[in-house]
């Protein structure tokens, strides 16, 4: 029986261990100190490893038997902003370079090189087709050159990716290419009608990445006719897009659907698409919430929706002498200011008297001061010093009904409303309140 030389055993061991590493450089070196690796999973991520970045260089050793997939490398905080993703299979060592100017590039890793070059090339060619139609071109020669290049690029990369992990991403990304030169609206309709043809939403490897999230966002927010009359018309189409996406997600785990809808909700909220964000929250997310964390997230989302600029402020009630007043029915002002404060809050006792003085010259502004208190002992004398304000008290402080209704986490907190009680602004302090009122007189 032949013995394998010791040096060969050593080399084999080294080669195997090197396949479990991600190494490379960060530039500029002085800006980076630490790197954390997470493996993405459907709707979340799991910690894998971390290491120091020394003089711009690092080596991450991934635990043996780690599953192949998309791995997120986080290099700063907040973690959801400062990261990039790599494909890790355990079958090849990954060597990369990252700099703040140009992002990530790969020195070694067939999987990641192919993934990166494919999306760079296919996106460029797809943009050429979009630009062709946007320009209203009818040049058939140019059309055939663009569409043939698109088909060839897709087919070539699918063949290159055979037996590789990235193959499923490349195949799932196959897009719509018209078979003949059609009018712009027909191109848009064809692209929308075939959008989900190659997208396997049930593939857990694709779920464990941003790929399907990006695809879902792109469909919901951009699959629109070229001409829409109003913002309301746009929202109606977006709601139809959400419903079409929901059909594709049927049968998937509730956790993953909840996560995907939440990512879309974030974007619709950021873009002030209020009807769509309300629909996502009430129709698609609430029925799928199961965990305590999901229930808590729903509460936070509902608070953002009801307290956004443009929304009618939630109703308040207070007693003035012997009569009961409500925010919804009180009249006589051009603008209303709601301030949540406490008689035991140092910042409040500094800001509110100053604000009280400033607003004496603004008779068209009515102030409702809501005291978050444990009892009336200090609230009565302190509120009496602010005689021009309407005063309400919310016993229970942070756990009171109004603190929860208005999502109050600090005092003082301000809301400025218009004459119809719609939220105009949420200033940070008394000076910002005065500045806003003066600029919007």
Descriptive overview:
It is a single chain. The chain has 441 residues and is α+β, with helices and mostly antiparallel strands. The chain contains 15 helices and 15 strands. The protein has helices at 6-18, 110-134, 140-160, 167-172, 184-193, 204-207, 211-222, 231-249, 254-270, 274-285, 292-306, 346-358, 379-384, 401-405, 430-439, and strands at residues 21-27, 34-41, 44-52, 57-61, 69-74, 83-88, 94-99, 103-108, 317-320, 323-326, 335-341, 365-373, 390-395, 413-418, 423-425. The strands form four sheets. A five-stranded mixed beta sheet has the order 13-12-11-14-15. Strand 5 (69-74) and strand 6 (83-88) form a beta hairpin. Helix 2 (110-134) runs antiparallel to helix 3 (140-160) and helix 9 packs antiparallel against helix 10 (274-285). It is globular and about 80 Å long. 27% of the residues are buried. Residues 8-17 have low confidence and may be disordered.
Q: Topology, please?
A:
Blueprint: H1 6-18, E1 21-27, E2 34-41, E3 44-52, E4 57-61, E5 69-74, E6 83-88, E7 94-99, E8 103-108, H2 110-134, H3 140-160, H4 167-172, H5 184-193, H6 204-207, H7 211-222, H8 231-249, H9 254-270, H10 274-285, H11 292-306, E9 317-320, E10 323-326, E11 335-341, H12 346-358, E12 365-373, H13 379-384, E13 390-395, H14 401-405, E14 413-418, E15 423-425, H15 430-439
Parallel strand pairs: 1-7, 11-12, 12-13
Antiparallel strand pairs: 1-4, 2-3, 2-5, 5-6, 7-8, 9-10, 11-14, 14-15
